[in-house]
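Slide 14.
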Amino acid sequence: MALIPVLSPDPRLADVVSEATSDRFVVARSSSWDRLQWLVRERPATGVVLDSGGLPTVPEPDERIADLRRKFPSLGLVLVFRPHADRVMLLRLGRASIPHLEAVPGDNVRREIARALARASSGGARATVLRALGVQMPPPHRHIVRAALDGALLGWATDDLAAWAGWTRAHLSVRLKEQGLPSAGSLLLWARLLHASQWLSESGRSAESVSRQLGYSNGAVFRRALRNYVGATPTAVAQRGGLDYTLGLFLDECGLGDSVRDTLSVA
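Slide 15: predicted structure.
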């Protein structure tokens, strides 16, 4: 299931984040930096929330967060800064210009955290795939792809995707075929591999950890799925561009590859 680790000495912050994001994520509180990194590496985490009051001070917090970004470039980062947060630390973080790091005041978490996580995760597989689809796919079908991308991190099967759409499995298959999309089962598998392809490009992850994150029973099953759908090993996927490589194959599978490439070349 999709995960948001929360690093904080205050359990109430994790509760607030959970209430605000319960439709898409499970929230796991971490009391240590090492535990946080383990959760990101071993579980399907797409973003983290960092409490300024829970950041270790050695090395400097900006160095730790920058290192986290280097290891996991697609990970959305949200910093909750408390009223008495160290101003020097905040200044150093500002100067570091860490990509996809959003800041939320501690007294505004309940109202802002969901939007901040969405902004911070704009470089993730979900956002990247939906941007690529753009206007090339009608909204109803684009919403199904978005649900499949979310469902891939929730362990969804075909029946779950059909239930989300409010259709029978047979009707879902008809609607997908109308748009040239893969079958529901294949769409969910593509969604998992799109997430996997992005994670395989990150230095903080391994093929084995990615397979566990996506619920595969073992690494061999994961490697077989990659080979059957994208014709490459985990190492080769990373070397060929990771998410961009697999996304190109997915768009070709949907009959949209040329349209998207033409749009990008004009832009």
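Speaker note: The chain has a mean pLDDT of 90.
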